[in-house]
């Protein structure tokens, strides 16, 4: 078996390779690698194992080089999860060990894996939360019946409140979403992602119809939005934002239900709601209300240079030890532009 490390953005048929594995996701795609590379300057080192001309395993890895957090490897930065793509006849432990050897040679301080495998050997386990998946193979009626009573009631309430829904992949829709996202992130005590990130996501993904922006409006004003990313037969709900003062109108409920129907009608078979943090009980309850299947997420850190110390101020922001919900949006945007590439 031949194992090498490469840049997926330079492989023309990369997405065809990952689609040959059942556990593929948008995070494995070359487009996601392009967005991370172009926005933050992360360097891809994707492990690929081949045998007799067939791809047997893929483990995405990106190098994050920061003056604050050092040089480390993550699979993958800003990705809720990233399952290794491995054929049944291949040992994952062997693939993981090859990745660790590579990281040691490159003098990375650590390797972080974000997958559902259990790594008990020499790793620090971090409970990352949950992911929630919806099987879209059911009929629309079956999907609706699987919703919680509260979710169905709120969908009807949004309809009575004359909340409208549309899919809008225009630049103006992106700008509206980013504005809401800034306020939503501040409400949660966090800086927003750099606008550059969303613009790159738009140019590389959304403008090519590999994803879409769902929008809820009230009296022609955008009050809620979500970004969905698409690959193969799978959809990922990656980002959501809304104006809190309109929450009682339930715009998010009609947005998600209408998006589910759109995805089903366009042949998608699975919707992943992405990661929910353990302490976010309300969001977890909201996602379970859609009849989703819950899976536990753990992240695994392999320390390769234990003498390395993470800058305390960067660590505080990444772990939400500093509340930013009283900061002006302008300042939060500046903080986001500076710190995000170091948090990863």
Describe the model.
The protein is of the alpha+beta class. The protein folds into 2 domains: 138 residues, Aminopeptidase; 132 residues, Aminopeptidase. The chain contains 11 helices and 15 strands. About 3% of the residues have low confidence.
Summary of the model, kept short:
The chain is of the alpha+beta class. The protein has 11 helices and 15 strands.
Could you give the topology of this structure?
Blueprint (H helix, E strand, L loop, with lengths): L1 E5 L7 H6 L10 H11 L2 E2 L1 E6 L2 E6 L2 E5 L3 E6 L9 E2 L5 H14 L4 E6 L8 E12 L4 H6 L3 H12 L3 E4 L3 H17 L7 H10 L6 E8 L2 E11 L2 E9 L8 H15 L4 E7 L4 H8 L4 E11 L8 H7 L10 H15 L1
Parallel strand pairs: 6-8, 13-14
Antiparallel strand pairs: 1-3, 2-5, 3-4, 4-7, 5-6, 8-15, 9-14, 9-15, 10-11, 11-12, 12-13
Helix pairs in contact: 2-7, 5-8
Q: Helical proportion?
A: 25-40%
Averaging pLDDT over every residue, what do you get? Answer: 92
Number of helices: 11
Shape designation: globular
What's the name of the CATH homologous superfamily of the largest domain?
Gcn5-related N-acetyltransferase (GNAT)
User: Would you list the SSEs in sequence order as H and E?
Assistant: EHHEEEEEEHEEHHEHHEEEHEHEHH
Helix-strand category? alpha+beta
End-to-end Cα distance: 32 Å
- Assign the CATH architecture of the largest domain: 3-Layer(aba) Sandwich
Task: Name the beta content range.
Answer: 25-35%
CATH topology (level 3) name of the largest domain: Aminopeptidase
Which CATH C-level class of the largest domain is it? Answer: Alpha Beta
**Structural Rg:** 20 Å
């Amino acid at each position: 078996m031949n194992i090498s490390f490469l840049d997926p953005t330079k492989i023309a048929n990369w997405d065809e390779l990952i689609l040959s594995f059942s556990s593929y996701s948008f995070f494995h795609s070359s487009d996601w690698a392009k967005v991370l590379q172009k926005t933050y300057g992360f360097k891809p080192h994707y492990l690929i194992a081949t045998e007799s001309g067939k791809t047997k395993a893929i483990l995405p890895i990106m190098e994050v080089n920061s003056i604050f957090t050092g040089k480390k490897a993550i699979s993958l930065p800003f990705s809720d999860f990233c399952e290794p793509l491995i054929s049944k006849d291949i040992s994952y432990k062997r693939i993981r060990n090859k990745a660790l050897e590579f990281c040691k040679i490159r003098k990375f301080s650590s390797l972080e894996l974000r997958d559902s495998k259990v790594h008990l050997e020499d790793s620090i386990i971090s409970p990352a939360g949950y992911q929630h998946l919806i099987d879209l193979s059911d009929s629309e009626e079956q999907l609706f019946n699987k919703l919680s009573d509260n979710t169905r009631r709120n969908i009807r309430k949004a309809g009575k409140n004359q909340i409208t829904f549309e899919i809008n992949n225009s630049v103006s829709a992106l700008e509206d979403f980013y504005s809401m996202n800034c306020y939503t992130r501040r409400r949660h005590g966090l800086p927003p992602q750099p606008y550059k990130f969303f613009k790159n996501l738009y140019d590389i993904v959304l403008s090519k119809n590999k994803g879409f922006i769902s929008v809820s409006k009230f009296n022609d004003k955008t009050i809620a939005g979500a970004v969905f990313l698409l690959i193969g037969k799978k959809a990922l709900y990656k980002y959501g934002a809304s104006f809190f003062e309109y929450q009682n109108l339930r715009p998010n409920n009609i947005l998600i239900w209408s998006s589910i129907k759109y995805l089903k009608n366009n042949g998608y078979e699975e919707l992943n709601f992405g990661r929910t943090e353990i302490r976010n009980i309300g969001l977890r309850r909201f996602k379970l209300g859609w009849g989703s299947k819950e899976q536990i997420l753990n992240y695994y850190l392999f320390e390769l240079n234990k003498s390395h110390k993470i800058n305390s101020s960067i660590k505080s922001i990444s772990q939400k030890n500093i509340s930013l919900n009283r900061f002006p949006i302008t300042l939060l945007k500046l903080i986001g532009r500076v710190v995000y590439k170091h948090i990863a």
